[in-house]
Design goal:
Elements: H1 2-11, H2 22-30, E1 36-39, E2 42-52, E3 55-64, E4 73-83, H3 84-90, E5 95-98, E6 113-115, E7 118-121, H4 125-130, E8 134-139, E9 142-147, H5 150-155, E10 162-166, E11 169-172, E12 175-176, H6 184-188, E13 193-199, E14 204-209, H7 222-231, E15 234-239, E16 248-250, E17 255-256, E18 273-280
Antiparallel strand pairs: 1-2, 2-3, 3-14, 4-18, 5-16, 5-18, 6-7, 6-10, 8-9, 8-10, 11-12, 11-15, 13-14, 13-15, 16-17
Helix pairs in contact: 1-2
Length: about 280
């Protein structure tokens, strides 16, 4: 009991200003994550919560230890739009998560996307004004998460790397980011969410939380999701497209891992076609 009280006191400050409680911290840290090896350096973890942030939640995590010749993260463009699981199999990925926001009618990315010297898409002005303020960058196989804005995009000039903008950036250098300039409804409404994070020791996390199912998984708002990523050990974290797009997949762990919501059923079959994916192989 004494240890639990000390732990609660230590964790109490993490959620200041948000709805999270010390009890939420304890639930995340002490959850039975049931780790399952996907391959060397890639582990799948899953934890259902009867009450996290006061409601049911369902969290799935792929943890990756990047190495020089394996477990490299990449971005794949779906032309035309395609389910995350199908695209992942095309590139022979070990694991994958849905990518960034896109135009559902046209099927192309609504965010800056560059593969080497080729700029595929630029960020729509509405995305900048509501939520896009970060980007995933892969340079010589190394993944980083960086701040992003109109000026950065306009001036960006690197012919070698891969860049995919998204947002909001949730954690930067271990600190919770400021969400006050983002669309308030998007930030404070609970949805299924997808994110990519980097831990202090360089591990990469692909994380999804399911939603829209009141009895099984409600979803999270952005401060709640950022808090989860921080408790999972991330110092950097970037929110990706969510809602019906949220999908986490692994080749050696029964395929689709989360409960995509696009068919309104709490199961693995409700994938939505998306414009791009982030994968590891």
């Amino acid at each position: 009991m004494k240890k639990r009280i000390i732990l609660l006191m230590l964790l109490a400050g993490i959620g200041i200003g948000y709805a999270q409680t010390p009890e939420d911290s304890v639930k995340i840290i002490r959850a039975n994550w049931s780790p399952q090896k996907v391959k060397k350096g890639i582990v799948y973890k899953h934890a259902p919560f009867k009450f996290l942030y006061g409601v049911p939640q369902n969290v799935n995590v792929i943890e990756i230890i990047p190495e020089k010749k394996r477990n490299q993260v990449g971005v794949f463009i779906n032309e035309p739009v395609r389910e995350t699981s199908k695209s992942a199999q095309i590139v022979n990925a070990d694991a994958a998560i849905n990518g960034s926001y896109y135009h559902m009618k046209q099927g192309n990315s609504a965010c800056f996307l560059k593969i080497g010297p080729d700029v595929i898409d630029t960020t729509h002005h509405q995305e900048f004004s509501s939520r896009v303020n970060g980007a995933l960058r892969i340079d010589k196989g190394k993944l980083s998460l960086i701040p992003w804005d109109k000026q950065t995009e306009k001036m960006y000039n690197n012919s070698r790397d891969i860049v995919l903008a998204a947002g909001p950036l949730m954690l930067n250098k271990g600190n919770m980011c400021d969400f006050s300039q983002c669309d308030s409804v998007f930030i404070h409404t609970r949805h299924p969410r997808s994110a990519i994070g980097i831990t202090a020791d360089g591990h990469v996390l692909m994380v999804t939380v399911d939603g829209y199912f009141p009895h099984h998984a409600v979803g999270m708002d952005i401060p709640e999701f950022a808090f989860l990523l921080k408790l999972l050990g991330c110092t950097e974290a970037l929110n990706l497209d969510g809602g019906g797009s949220t999908t986490l997949w692994a080749q050696q762990a029964d395929g689709v891992l989360n409960m995509p919501s696009d068919d309104k059923k709490f199961g693995h079959s409700g994938e939505r076609s998306v414009a791009n994916i982030i994968y590891v192989k």
